[in-house]
Design brief:
79 residues; 5 strands; mainly beta; single chain; 3-stranded antiparallel β-sheet
Length: 79
């Protein structure tokens, strides 16, 4: 899948093992960028689990979203 890096805005190819942007080392998968995330409830609708607002916006390497298999980009990358 292709994900737009939230920091450098470059489109990157992200597979199950890819966690960060190769250019700026920012975590690519963020809950706020996933179509399964409900920002009103701070809830992942795929896993039905609450997500901390801070982690949804600024995930760490140990955050749920970093290697999430259910991640679906909410906006398609513009090439």
């Amino acid at each position: 899948m292709e994900v737009t890096c939230p920091k450098c805005k470059q489109v990157q190819e992200a597979d199950e093992k890819t966690a960060t942007c190769p250019n700026c080392r920012t975590v690519l998968r963020r809950c706020v960028g996933c179509s399964n995330y409900d920002p009103r409830l701070s809830l992942c609708t795929a896993s039905n689990q609450p997500i901390d607002t801070g982690e949804a916006n600024y995930p760490t390497y140990s955050s749920q979203s970093t290697y999430c298999r259910e991640f679906v980009p909410s906006v398609s990358p513009s090439v």
